[in-house]
Amino acid sequence: MKKILTFIGLAFISSSLYSQGSPDYGNGLKLNLNPEGDKYVRFILWNQIWLRNTEMNPGTMVSDEATKNSWNIGNRRLRALAYAQITKRYMVLMHFGINNQTFINGGGSGTTGTGGYGNGKKPQMFFHDAWNEYAVVLPGEAGKFSLSIGAGLHYYMGLSRMTMASTLNFLTVDSPVFTWPLIDNSDQFARQMGMFAKGKYGKFEYRFSLNKPFATNIAPVDVTNPAARVAVDNNGNPQFSKAGYVEYQFLDQESNLLPFKVGSYLGTKKVFNLGAGFYHQKDGTRTSVNSNIEKHDIALYAIDAFADLPLGNAKHKMALSAYTGFYNYNFGPNYLRNLGIMNVGSNDPNFIGDKAIAGAGNLQPMIGSGNIYYLQAALLLPSNADKPKIRIQPFAAYTNKNFKALENSSSQFDIGANWFIDGHHAKLTTQYSTRPTYTSASAEPKSKGEFILQFQIYL
User: Fold this and answer.
1) Residue-level pLDDT at 90
2) Which segments in the chain show pLDDT lower than 70?
3) What is the number of other CB atoms lying within 10 angstroms of the CB of residue 236?
4) What's the whole-model pTM score?
5) How is 110-143 classified by DSSP, letter by letter?
6) Under 8 Å CB-to-CB from 371, ≥6 apart: which residues?
7) What count of other Cβ atoms lies within 10 Å of the Cβ of residue 130?
8) Taking every pair of C-alpha atoms in the chain, what is the biggest distance, in angstroms?
């Protein structure tokens, strides 16, 4: 009977995390390793293809042709994840795949030009996560308290819910990206190598980690005026980073089997959480004034709230989903990082006029020392009795960034809808987004737009 109850508990945890909105998916691709089913291997596969129309920053070329606007198709994510519950206390996980492959970039190392190893072709798969963990205190063994510890390349990066977001069930088409503040500089696609501890105490859930950041070595520009110094990622022999996130779950309790936080439960749970987190690394960036190098700590803090609540008559299966967060970032003086997802543009050396200081294509000021406020919300519309699986979820998001390196703050918007064929397992997402473009650090930002149609499937 104990083994049967354990199996039922594990199945419920797995199902509640990964089958939002699909009554048929159940426990997914699962291979039992014993007759009781409490030892198993679970496989998850997913793909996200983007069809985009992008209004380019001024001074952009695509494949050596000047352009103001570009259509393209890209492979945003192609991933595979497997985890094995070896015993009721011991689990191992591996997660690998590719990201951001377009017709011109994102290919394997050395791919360029025309031919079998030409532009954008044959991207190299890499591990996103690889860790094992041990449940020191299982739920129920010590009252309200539970504890698991683990080590490896992991996603327990603290700071906020969105910093550890699942990419399978975003509310909008994707992450706002600034919630991964170290992305591919001192982390590996939002992961670092280290040790973590996770667990619950009553309605509190906690995650803490100690990690060795990846080395960075960008040379700071030497200036004579201290007010003009600009911090860059240069951590030398990196000091250990510390990260943590604690949240209080007022209503239904969320699974913490895996680190990936759900973006929208589609009314299958009643959730309201408040959370706070941090990330800190000593001497993570550097500036140079009159050839004197100064080191600066990376100190990042966030508070956030998440709600996913059924609305109205249960037979209509309506739901409200919302997330809001306030992020305070300090990377050192005037730190600013420009990013653009799957940017296909390059600099046009023959352009005459004011270029965007962020660069060509869809680059924008994404991460920097300063404050960021973010809000997203969606309404899951009533189900259709004739086609109960077909659901529509309109959404909108707002971001305000106030970076110290820029004199004026920026506001940007996302509006769109999820068109569910079978919950998050098969869906289309349409989204129109704006982004700020600056022609100088003192200029008022202008706005450019981008339309995305995403095709998503996961098993």
Assistant:
1) 96
2) 1-23, 26, 385
3) 13
4) 0.93
5) T--SSSTT-TT-SPPPEEEEEEEEEEEEEEEEET
6) 326, 327, 328, 329, 401, 402
7) 15
8) 76
Backbone angles phi, psi at 159, to 5 degrees: 70, -65
Count Cβ atoms below 10 Å from residue 403 Cβ, excluding itself: 23
C-alpha to C-alpha distance for 161 and 273, rounded to whole angstroms: 10
Which of the 8 DSSP states describes residue 183?
A: T
Q: In the sheet where 65-66 sits, what is the strand order? A: 65-66, 60-62, 346-347
Cα–Cα distance between 177 and 188 in angstroms, integer? 14
CA distances from residue 162 to 49, 171, 302 in whole angstroms, order as listed: 21, 11, 10
Helix (H/G/I), strand (E/B), else coil: 188? strand
**285-335 pLDDT tens trace:** 999 999 999 999 999 999 999 999 999 888 888 999 999 999 999 999 999
Instruction: Please give the domain boundaries of the chain with CATH numbers for all domains.
Output: 2-458 (2.40.160.10)
The pair of structure tokens assigned to 431 is 């989204």
Dihedral over Cα of 384, 390, 393, 394: its sign: negative
Place of tokens 């510390």: 242
Smallest CA-to-CA distance from 307 within 285, 323, 288 is with 323
The amino acid sitting at 402 is N
Name 309's bridge partners: 320
